[in-house]
C-alpha cells in the first residue's frame, strides 16, 4: 500500500528566523529581512485560505524587501505551484538554489516538487543533496520523501534503501516504517516486516495502514487466524471513525 507523497510530506519546512542586531549595520540588514518575513507569513495565511491573488501580492512584496533571501523565492515557488504555473515554480526554486546553494530546505522542497512533476532522477538527486547540507536537520524527512518518490517511479529497491536510511535517523518515523514493512512483505521478508509492525503498534497503537500491511502479511503466509484478527481490528477502527 502506498500513501500519497502530497499527504505525507510538507511542501515547506518553515523555520522561525531570528536576527541578533549588534550594530547599526546589522540593524539595516535585519530590517528588510523582518519585513520580508512578515509578508511571507501573511502570504502563507492567504494560501491556506486559497486567496491566491492576495498571497501573491504579499510574496512579491517580500521579494522586493529581500530579493536575495531564499524564503522569498520558496514562497513564490509555493504560489506558482498552487496555481499550476509549474515552469515559473521551477524557475523560483532554481533561483532559491542560486541565492542559497548550501541550504537543505531549498534542496528538499525542490526535490519534492520535482517528484510531483514526475522528474524522479533529479528529484532523488535534490532530496539526497538536502541531507548533505550543513545545519540541516530534517534528514529523516528528506530520505522518506526520496523513498516515496522511488515508489512512484516503481523502484522498490531504491525505496527500501531510502526508508532504511530515514529510520536510521528517526527510528519510529511512522510512514517510513509502514512503507518499509510493505516492501519487506512484497519481498518475502515476513519476519522482518512482522517484527517492525509489532514494534510500531507497541509504540503507537493500532493504525489502519499498519494493520492493513500486517493483515496482508498473515494472509500471504497462510495464517488465517491472525489475518482474521487483524481484519477485525481494522473493522473496529473503521466503525469508530
Give an overview in words.
The protein is mostly helical. It has helices at 5-8, 24-48, 52-65, 70-82, 86-99, 104-116, 120-131, 139-152, 156-169, 174-186, 190-204, 208-220, 224-240. Helix 2 packs antiparallel against helix 3 (52-65), helix 4 packs antiparallel against helix 5 (86-99) and helix 6 (104-116) packs parallel to helix 8. The radius of gyration is 21 Å and the shape is elongated.
Query: Structural class, from helix and strand content?
Result: mainly alpha
Cα end-to-end separation: 20 Å
Give the DSSP E fraction (strand runs of 2 or more residues). under 5%
Assign a percent range to the helix content: over 70%
Low-confidence stretches: 1-28
* Morphology: elongated
**Cα Rg:** 21 Å
**How many strand segments?**
0
Order of helices and strands: HHHHHHHHHHHHH
How would you state the average pLDDT, rounded?
90
Give the helix tally: 13
Largest sheet: none
Pfam families: TPR_1, TPR_12, TPR_8
Signal peptide: 1-22
Organism: Vibrio chaetopteri
TPR repeats: 36-69, 70-103, 140-173
Amino acid at each position: 500500500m502506498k500513501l500519497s507523497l502530497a499527504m505525507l510530506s510538507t511542501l515547506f519546512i518553515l523555520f522561525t528566523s531570528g536576527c541578533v542586531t549588534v550594530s547599526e549595520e546589522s540593524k539595516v540588514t535585519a530590517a528588510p529581512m523582518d519585513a520580508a518575513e512578515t509578508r511571507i507569513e501573511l502570504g502563507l495565511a492567504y494560501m491556506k485560505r486559497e486567496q491566491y491573488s492576495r498571497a501573491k501580492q504579499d510574496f512579491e512584496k517580500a521579494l522586493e524587501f529581500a530579493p536575495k533571501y531564499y524564503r522569498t523565492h520558496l514562497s513564490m515557488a509555493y504560489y506558482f505551484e498552487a496555481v499550476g504555473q509549474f515552469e515559473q515554480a521551477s524557475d523560483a526554486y532554481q533561483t532559491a538554489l542560486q541565492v542559497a546553494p548550501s541550504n537543505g530546505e531549498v534542496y528538499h522542497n525542490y526535490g519534492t516538487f520535482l517528484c510531483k512533476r514526475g522528474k524522479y532522477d533529479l528529484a532523488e538527486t535534490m532530496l539526497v543533496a538536502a541531507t548533505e547540507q550543513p545545519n540541516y536537520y530534517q534528514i529523516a524527512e528528506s530520505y522518506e520523501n526520496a523513498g516515496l518518490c522511488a515508489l512512484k517511479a516503481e523502484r522498490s529497491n531504491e525505496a527500501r534503501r531510502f526508508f532504511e536510511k530515514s529510520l536510521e535517523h528517526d527510528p519510529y518515523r511512522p510512514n517510513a516504517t509502514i512503507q518499509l514493512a510493505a516492501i519487506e512483505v512484497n519481498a518475502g521478508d515476513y519476519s522482518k516486516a512482522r517484527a517492525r509492525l509489532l514494534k510500531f503498534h507497541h509504540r503507537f497503537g493500532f493504525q489502519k495502514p499498519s494493520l492493513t500491511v500486517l493483515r496482508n502479511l498473515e494472509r500471504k503466509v497462510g495464517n488465517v487466524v491472525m489475518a482474521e484478527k487483524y481484519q477485525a481490528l481494522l473493522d473496529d477502527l473503521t466503525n469508530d471513525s
